[in-house]
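QA checklist item 7 of 12: single-chain prediction sanity check.
[x] sequence parsed
[x] length recorded as 591
[x] structure emitted
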Amino acid sequence: MNILNRHNFHIPVLGLGYSIDTPIQVAPYGISSVISLVDDSLVENMREFYSRKFDLPFQAISDKIEDFRAKRITSYLNMVDVVVKKKVEHLKKTAFEKGSELEKYIAMLPNVSELKERFILATKDIKLKDEFTKWIDAHLHVGSIDVNIMTKLDKVNYKGTEELPIEFNDAHAALRGFAQSTLSSSLVLSAGMSPRLYSYLEKFEDFFPDANGIIKKNIILKVSDYRSALVQGKMLAAKGLWVAEYRIESGVNCGGHAFPTNGVLFGPILEEFKNNKETLLSTCSEVYESAIASKNLNKPATTPSFLITAQGGVGTHQEHTYLMQNYNMDGIGWGTPFMLVPEVISIDEVTLDLLAKAKEKDLYFSGLSPLGVPFNSVKWASMSELRMARIAEGKPGSPCTKQYLKYNTEYTDKPICTASSRYLKTKLEEIKNAGLSEADYTYQYNKLIEKECLCVGLGISALQSKGIEVKESDKVTVCPGPNLAYFSKKSTLTEMVDHIYGRTNLLDDRHRPHMFIKEFGMYLDILKDKLAELAINEDAKARKNLVGFVKNMTDGVAYYQSISSSLEPAFASDLATMNQELIKLSAEAIN
């Protein structure tokens, strides 16, 4: 299918639950999106809901049976596959009815789409209508039902007191669940490199070319820099596994966990990918072809190639177009703005209203995550309110019911979660008796009590949106990026797609800094935090790393100054203002 007849954006994973069923809503319109595979109990709840809705057979998969996690994931993905195919068939059968789903599909395509013109002509000529009907039946593009695995979330599991083999670890079981599904789509691997998980990929034939050279399940790597892409791409290629897409995410990201660099800004990272794409392709191709030959694998049907896409903080058609044209991106991820599109995501009305009203001061870069990774969130979410109430009652922490984020063994043989009551009770007592200065104690105390139960919080809203009963104590964590501040109303899918393609404007009338500037501001906040840490506890290694952080930011400013004339007029003045703050903070870092 001609690329002009496809969308050039995708919807990334949004928390554990917000995009859990997004493919059902958007894949029939040719839009690709990503499901999180972290929470298998949420997956099971959603499978039951949609099985009832579409009159499909349903038999619950108990957590008492062997390999229940993988089986739940496989069953859910198979069900999503069936539902999407049903909706696509309906779309085709009712193609020329007034107000049909195909009409909506066509209307949302980019303005340059040849398919739009063909559709208009077909509505006026019976012969062309018949030809067009046959064409869409065979060639209409359906959005990909992709899945995400955070490689860090690979908790060891037990049967009683017996540790289960590694293939029953959380990430391994999720991978197996996807690999055994009927889907022909992509696995998005995020949160860093995992050699043992990459080796496990080799056990599933769908990740290799079949007898016809077709790869049924592709691999997408979410990366934050070129070096990471090259290292991981070569590692997978040596196993005969081809990376079909490198998905570059800025520090601002699409909401939720952020993986900031050591001060290297997004623009220079994109420039490096642009300048080295051919090197990345030739290096990985050479390794891949050698592996295919040495392992006696089927050759791919076409010469290996890959897409490079970008995401994180994109909010205007102008930014979207700039990334596509200036950095030769193959597509752009739009995440946070879709948090205000209930037609697309699963979100309860109270949280939706909270997000619609949120402004810059309400959206913040937090320490909520038990993983110790920065986490984008919004003030006043109900889980945060519950967390503060527990602290006020002298009961910090949460009961650890789902246990997906257990990794700390500071006080226990088996990992526990740093947001759990069990961990915080011990840790807070330790720092209380450590003889710390008042400033140091306050700083450490505030860091500790910020941890929040994400396992429950990030899935509850999806259940509430479907009318599925939840416990009174189960509250909502929400994970928008700071880009949400400039979107202030609930929108439809068509309205958001029109905004992406510049056919309408959903932003409010306040000044919105360019996405590069917004990320720069986030790194300034990180720099301030690092300086605050050093003021309490001077450390030579941390000081050296901080100097490197500042240098990378300074280099980024020089790069942005060199391209400022190609960006919006306000960019240069915003950059100059923020650079003055960087210069001031730099002096503190060096001294």
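[x] summary fact logged: The CA atoms of residues 454 and 584 lie 36 Å apart.
[ ] second reviewer sign-off
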